[in-house]
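Figure S4 source data
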Amino acid sequence: MDKIFGGLKSLVKIDAIVTDNHVFRLHYKVTCALLIAFSILVTSRQYIGDPIDCITKDSVPTRVLDTFCWIHSTFSVKDAWNKKVGVQVPYPGVDKYTPGEQRVYHAYYQWVCFVLFLQAVLFYVPRYLWKACEGNKIRTIVLDLDSPILNDDKRKCNRKLLVDYFVNNLGQHKMYTCYYFLCEILNFVNVIGQIYLMDEFLGGEFSTYGTKVLEFTEWDWSVRFDPMVKVFPRLTKC
């Protein structure tokens, strides 16, 4: 496991030469690393562990039934979400079969690890483009001034070269600035796009999920319905 997550250290390491700001780094360092880590954890659970446990009274082997339900996805009965648990239904969304019942399928569970990885890639794209456009320009013009072992004479000489460079090239880096701001805009567009992506992935429930959870805490416990159970059910039918 250490070897698997060891590769993420390069994403969160502190760079000696910084060419962006703190918010930019949150996108491709913290967020990207977290998404990849979660993707690895979910993948190990889905394809190495046991992602689903089916309850049955039939003679069908448990592993066969688990595989069938996982491949064909599970569902909840829409009319059973608001029924009283323990009296009318055993769990929200789980009820006996009735003709014409409205079903809500939960097929997205199979794709969580891939979507998490896709999100990580999308968060890193602006960083990748900025590195390509930046071309180590800052590292080149620094002239090893960040090195603690540079002797004083060499440091003074490099400082003079750096000052002369800025004086002679004043106003010549407009495209460099434009590239950076474009990548910052891409970060913003990516965040907005991720919201729509998650909303589509969760069947339109993501955009209102937060407000519904907050409202849920204010409802009377005897009548309230947990929106977290609706979006992320622990028990479903197959």
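Figure S5 source data
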Amino acid sequence: MLLTGESLQKGQTAANLRVFDVNTFELIKEIPVTNSHVVKTLWHPKLNQIFVGCGNGLVRCYYDEKRSFRGAILCASKSYRKKKPADVVGVSQIITPHALPMFRQEKSKSLRKKQEKDRLDPRPDLPITSGQGGRVASSGGTLSSYVIRNLGLSKRVDDDQDPREAILKYAKEAAENPYWIAPAYKKTQPKPIFNDEPDAKKAKQE
């Protein structure tokens, strides 16, 4: 037998796959393929299947269930997996128009509207630490506030507080009890030595 494909002629709706007898050149079989040209035909001797490539990118495979071996039969013989009733769980809405307001369910909304509503009114996160001074939220989220709070101060320092006023509160205590300056030079420089000359006079001497 001789196998060949034909091009799509003008006015023809489908190109055919033709099978001829080699001895008599008699047409044995004519199979319509697709509404495009048949570009290439291939017969696989081991699989005993015919593959046809078309001009529109379509590939068709012809086989006999009794004479063909593997190939496309492995794909065609697979059956779809039947869904069990336990695999699908349907969630039905119970409508109770005469129920009390506290037990009444809301009407089902689309997923898009529900996401938009959740985005518009999000719930703020609760504070990690407890408040102080009558305030619920924790104050002072900057690095300076964190350092000041961890220097042994009993009260928290707000970010909007004037730093100059906060320092002047401890000016008198720092003068009487210089805890952060004097002990550092107690062994190396027990008697403080200061430069009383102004910078302008010092520059002239140089």
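Residues 2-77 form one domain. The beta strands are 2-5, 15-20, 27-34, 38-44, 49-54, 59-62.
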